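As a representative case, we now present a protein record of this kind.
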Amino acid sequence: MAVRRTAQVGHPALQSANEIISNFSDTKLLSLIQDLEDTMLAADLIGLAAPQIGENHQVFITQPRKTKSRPEIADELRVYINPTITQFSDETVTIFEGCGSVVHGQLFGPVSRPKTITIEAFDRVGKKFSLTCDGILARVIQHEYDHLQGVEFLEKVSDYREMMALEHYKENVATSQPHIDASQISALEFKYL
């Protein structure tokens, strides 16, 4: 439908309450999902939440794609409506994160999050599902879920002295073996409820 402008830190939509979706066949919802997809791909992101394009609804999408530093790590496009993370592992992992809403994805910092999560949500046609995963998929789900709670990744950075610009992230972190290992998706269990 349309590539939308991503709201930047400080925009009211990023901190406002997000409405629960009740009508899964609403054409506005279908347009919103398409706009999220178009905007995510155009901005070269791996996830995007509705508040990031100024829409305060409980919707986000994910699609980790293969890159030079992640040639074996990818997942299909997934839509999460009215999501709830129901389980977090005790084990955590630190991965550098960036965000399309923080200087348009040009700033990265280390964030520690649970390694494995289980999320329940509705897909684009209103079917409820459960997804258990780890790696970059668990990471992006938690990141986008935070957006629906009005939380930006900057609030979770573990060491601000390690913040870096995109170019340094690509040169020094993205291709490092520890970062690649932490990004591997080794657990993925999807089922409809």
Observations:
- The longest strand covers residues 78-88.
- The mean pLDDT is 95.
- The chain has four helices and nine strands.
